[in-house]
Every structure is written in structure tokens, then in C-alpha cells.
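Field reference: sequence -> structure
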Amino acid sequence: MNTRTQLTILSPVAKYRHPKNHKTIETIGTSGHFDVALVEAFGFSEVARARNIVASKAEEHVRNVGGLVFWLDADMVLPNIEVFLLHVACVRASDRAISGRYVVRQDESRIAASRHEFRQRPHEEYDIGSNMKLTLEHALCGMGCLLMTASMFLDQLEAVPTCFRKENGEEFRERLVCCPRIEEHPTSGHVMISEDYDYCRSIENGTWLAHISNGESLNSWLDYGHVAEKTLMHSPKPHTFRDDR
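Structure field:
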């Protein structure tokens, strides 16, 4: 009996997949815990279009197999398989879309997430076994390493606009799952909402960052690496969010 989890990895690739990112996908695939399907889109200069393409290409497969859907950018690095297994356990325990924590490439002291819209929302807490406690913090996240259930992914696809176009002579249905937008702000005039933040807003119950502890040796976020000139991990000092001043 196959007890492995069906995992669909959605990965837009602008120029090339970094070798460390390729190793991350290989590590997940050879761990023995997952049946992995990798859905890619190459050569799109506009990241929102690339994300729409991979989501659209993956739809039929996800409907058939279910399981989990993992947005993974081509410059993201998993430090070890244990982090991803914890990531999966957190999503299963909470039924929430959870992002790994990673830094922006321009400033390794800042997290690619914003709490601005959710500062007053309470944290959520769950038990995830072996005396481990999961605390979720609501945030708008990047889509570099965002994990969710197949049902969340499909519910979102069904709620967004669709366009049809020709691809290799055949009609292709493109789900417009994320697009940057301009909105009026109560104090700042007009602001641009990036395509990843727009995506997070449209997921039922939003997106979250996860902290895991067991009251003893384990006290950790789900930290992923972000490749720039080097792989960036969390800094020794406390992180600030993009909207912290």
C-alpha cells in the first residue's frame, strides 16, 4: 500500500533553475514520503504570467491526485528534509496555507512577508504531536515556498477569472490566479499590490508563518534559504518585516 503523499510542485523559472534549488526538489522526491509532480514554466519575464501558467497547467493533475500543492521559486533552498516534513505537518494540523520564512535578497535582515493588514488578528495555536506546539502568525507572504492543500488551490482557481488563448495551435485555458494591482490607500494615496500579496489575499483564511516549539530544544521557524550571491538564511538578530518602522 502506497502511503506517500501526492505533492505537486509549482515552479516558475525566469532564466534557469539554480542547482541548489534542483537539489531541494531532488531531496523531497527521494525522501520516500512523497510522489512528486513538478510543473514548470520557462522564459516568462513577467512573474505573474509565469505563476498563472504553472497553476493552469497543474489544475487537471491536482484534481486527479489531490494531496498538497507547493509553490516553489527556482531560487529557493531547503536546508534539510526535516524542515519540509515539519512544514507538511503544520499544514495538515491547521488546514492553513503556510509559507516558509525567507529573507528578501536585497536585505537579509528583512522577511519576505508583511503583517500590516493583520496586526490586530490573534495568533492560532495547534498541537502537532510529540509535545510540539505550532503557533501561526497571519501575514501576506511571498510565494517562494508556500504550501497548501489541493482543495485550497482548486477553490482559488475556481474563484478567479479565466482567459483563453492559443498555444501551439491549441486552445489553452489560463487561470488568472495572481496579478499585480493598484489600490487606493486611506493615507498613502494609491499603492501597488504585488502579484504574490494579491494571491495571498484571495486564499480563504489567508496565509500564515509558522513557529514550532516543544518547550525544550526545539524553538524554530520554517526557515528556507534564498539564493543571491550566497544562500541567505535567518540572521542572528531578530528579523523585521517589510512594513516595520
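Note: The chain has a mean pLDDT of 87.
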